[in-house]
Amino acid sequence: MVKRYWPAQLSQAAKSLPLNLQWLAAPGRSTCAMGAAAALAVGTAVVGTASAAREPLNLQRTAVVSELPGATPADPVPEAPADGMGSTTAVDAPAEPAPEAPPASVPLDELRVTSPFGWRENPLLAGAPEFHNGIDFGAVTGTPVKAAAAGTVTYAEYHQYGGLRIVVDHGNGTETTYNHLSGIHVEVGQWVDFNTVIGAIGSTGNSTGPHLHFEVLINGEYHDPAVWLGI
Ligand SMILES: [Zn+2]
Fold first, then answer.
1. Which residues surround ligand 1, an ion (CB under 5 A)?
2. C-alpha 33 – ligand 1 centre gap (Å)
3. DSSP annotation of 202
4. From CA 53, how far away is CA 42, in angstroms rounded?
5. What's the CA-to-centroid distance between 178 and ligand 1, angstroms?
6. Quick one: average pLDDT of 76-103?
7. 51 alpha carbon to ligand 1 midpoint, in Å?
8. Domain spans of the chain?
9. CA triplet 183, 189, 195: central angle to 5 degrees?
10. CATH code for 8-80+103-229?
11. pLDDT tens-digit series, residues 144-201
């Protein structure tokens, strides 16, 4: 799947930048810094060097997005204009709108957004923008985490940045991920229905406090979970 937002030179430029800069999460914020890695994952996918869609956080190199030449904020709105999302050199912008069918459920009974999807300022890097590829919901440790829709578990183990992480494949190219869990209650290959409790809130991996980092991928592209959830 060719990404439309990230020119090939983006990933090339990123490889020359120092590592781990974006993991400077602000203390006291129940959030995580999984964004820049995701941006790189998208860039890497352009040149076809990684299967970023399934495990986008496995990259060894990270970078501050704001320092990347040609970086352009990805527009999460699926109804793309005909001009191909701006002036980047990205290619292969599909004309069809991405599927945005609302799921049957939400991952937590109480949704308290502590960090939304999209570009945000990193207070420890002079407000340098970074791309947050999911949405953070704050909750106390142990709070049940539910599958947002029916599907098959494709990942259920510890991840370097996501901590205890679950990925559910809903079919039609749609996946959701659940990160920083304190416990995992499902296994790879298991079918889960919407509302099935699959894990528990935690702060494992790259996290500064208990919360759920929830991602929505459609055909390997990150979408705004708030839009997908209809919240
Ligand atoms: Zn997050």
1. 32, 134, 136, 213
2. 6
3. B
4. 8
5. 10
6. 49
7. 21
8. 8-80+103-229
9. 55
10. 2.70.70.10
11. 999 999 999 999 999 999 999 999 999 999 999 999 999 999 999 999 999 999 999 9
